[in-house]
Design goal:
This protein is α+β, with helices and mostly antiparallel strands. Helix content is about 50%, strand content about 10%. The protein is built from 20 helices and 10 strands. The strands form 2 sheets. The protein has a 5-stranded antiparallel β-sheet with strand order 2-1-5-4-3. Helix 8 packs antiparallel against helix 9 and helix 9 runs antiparallel to helix 11. The longest helix has about 45 residues. It starts with a helix and ends with a helix.
């Protein structure tokens, strides 16, 4: 009787092999896995069900809600023919994967999930308590405690894993054969999937050229059990010479000598994925211990060609799986490098435009020529000393260049007045942070920098403007710009006073640390500026 439901569905994979497959996946991911054969609404295989979901089903109402959700998602997936994602009444994520042959034979569905998407928030815990009070399980507090053990999975990963399961099970339908070495095969495929995700998630355009290459090479060497890896590209000038962009692992030549010229010649001649069998290319003096090589060319969209190269100490280490993974890795590399090129082009265009905007504002007052650019550079120096991320520093640089943008709405005679401002003029001048924030706030792209622009004249002791914010209530971008702005103002001539020298300006910052300025920012700024002078 144990085999009857699966056998009735006509699915060619033996039940125990399918169960092993799902159990292995559940063990790796921590997710629930289940299989419902076609023509049934009852699971034939269940593995990894969470204690939280089991508690929900202890009441008849909870069991009914869970089944209604599962049935609805299963029907939706069966109708669409592709994996379907949704959140259940307890806001747990689930994906249902239909197993339908190319001829249209329905073998059933695999359910996967019982995960939270972004961690268990306080609002989610409250929702769980509300559900508990409605369906009356044995212990609501125990229900919340159980929820803390639910695995966290991004939606994109769940959906990718669903597509992977569908592909693997349908392959068995086509071959009408069982999975051989199911667990080992699963680990291999899942590792490939997770390696590629790790690369994708750890890279961003602002993470830098070298980090991007290092991550890809490191993941490739790990997964392929290679001894070493190289990233090479033809020089942009097109003279046929190869540039070594990055290397990883135990290289078979002295670091100071670089790759063997014979090896470079072989790489240049590879116009498609190429397996170079050792010791045919071996140079006894330079590379005495090199076995097989795998060379995978890739091309950027500007037609510049590159090569991903892996080397093994022994022969016979490269199979079909290694080749496929290296190809996927080279595609990933080309995509990342192209994205970084686009990012750099967009960044250059953005900062050129910002420079023009800030120059237009500075031009209203001849005494502040170049002020916005210098403030941005000073603020970035302090932020780097405080070890902020590249993303934050880019945002800070933009905010620094636009911090006085609101002066475009201040009358020119006030900006250029040769002397102290009257009370009404000072009030008009103090409107510029709010004006700038109001104008730039209309652009969604500037949502993260607007608070820094609005509050760069706040004081740490709460005596600044426009809102009198105090301490850490002042946005960090505003606190950084405040120090940079004051330093540049003190070290440039103004209509009403002569500039201070570098030491005098730093002393003023120290004297006002804790009152006008954030002490931590002042310390970082002084450290950074002194360091840049000594360099």
């Amino acid at each position: 009787m144990e085999h009857s439901l699966l056998e009735q569905s006509g699915y060619p994979l033996p039940r125990e092999d399918l169960k092993d497959f799902l159990q292995s996946l559940s063990r790796i991911t921590g997710l629930y896995m289940g299989f419902i054969p076609a023509g049934s609404d009852l699971p034939d295989i269940i593995v990894g069900e969470s204690s939280f979901c089991l508690q929900l089903k202890t009441s008849s109402e909870g069991a009914l809600r869970c089944k209604a959700f599962a049935d609805s998602l299963r029907i939706k997936a069966s109708q669409s023919g592709k994996p379907e994602f949704d959140l259940c009444h307890a806001r747990l994520a689930e994906v249902v994967i239909p197993i339908v042959s190319h001829e249209g034979t329905d073998f059933g569905t695999v359910s996967m999930g019982q995960a939270v998407i972004q961690g268990l928030s306080d609002e989610h815990k409250k929702h769980i308590r509300d559900i508990g009070s409605e369906i009356a399980p044995d212990d609501i507090d125990r229900l919340v405690v159980s929820a803390a053990g639910i695995p966290v999975f991004m939606r994109s990963r769940l959906e990718a894993l669903g597509s992977f399961i569908q592909q693997q099970l349908l392959e068995k339908v086509i071959s009408s054969g069982a999975l051989e070495d199911t667990t080992e095969y699963l680990f291999q495929k899942y590792e490939e999937l997770m390696f590629l995700y790790a690369i994708t998630e750890s890279l961003s355009p602002d993470s830098g050229h070298q980090k991007a290459l290092a991550v890809i090479l490191d993941k490739g060497v790990q997964r392929l059990n290679a001894r070493w890896g190289l990233f090479m590209m033809f020089e942009a000038e097109g003279d046929g010479s190869l540039e070594l962009l990055d290397a990883c692992g135990e290289l078979p030549w002295p670091e100071e000598s670089g790759p063997d010229p014979l090896l470079l010649g072989m790489i240049r001649g590879c116009h498609g994925p190429s397996l170079i069998l050792g010791p045919g290319f071996r140079n006894v003096e330079v590379a005495p211990n090199t076995g097989d090589l795998l060379v995978v060319p890739f091309r950027l969209r500007n037609s510049r060609e590159g090569f991903l190269v892996f080397g093994w100490e022994k022969k016979g280490m490269i199979g079909d799986g290694e080749l496929k993974f290296a190809l996927a890795l080279s595609n990933q590399a080309a995509s990342v490098l192209h994205a970084m090129q686009l990012y750099q082009e967009l960044a250059d265009l953005l900062f050129a435009t910002l420079g023009a905007l800030s120059s237009a504002v500075d031009a209203k007052d001849p005494y502040t020529h170049g002020h916005s650019q210098r403030v941005a550079e000073y603020a970035v120096l302090a932020a780097r000393d405080m070890d902020f991320s590249s993303k934050f520093i880019t945002m800070l640089k933009i905010a620094g260049q636009l911090h006085d943008f609101g002066k475009i709405g201040v009358r020119e005679h006030i900006l250029t007045k040769q002397g102290r401002l009257s009370e009404s003029e000072m009030k008009a001048m103090q409107e510029h942070p709010s004006i700038g924030a109001q104008i730039l706030g209309k652009f969604k792209s500037f949502v993260d920098i607007v608070p820094g622009i609005r509050h760069h004249h706040e004081h740490f002791d709460g005596r600044g403007y426009p809102m009198g914010l105090k301490g850490n209530d002042i946005p960090l971008v505003g606190r950084l710009i405040s120090v940079a702005d004051a330093y540049d103002a003190m070290t440039t001539d103004r209509p009403y006073r002569v500039k201070l020298d570098h030491r005098e300006a730093l002393a003023e910052l120290m004297n006002n640390s804790g009152s006008q300025f954030d002490p931590e920012v002042v310390a970082a700024f002084i450290s950074a500026v002194e360091g840049s002078i000594h360099e």
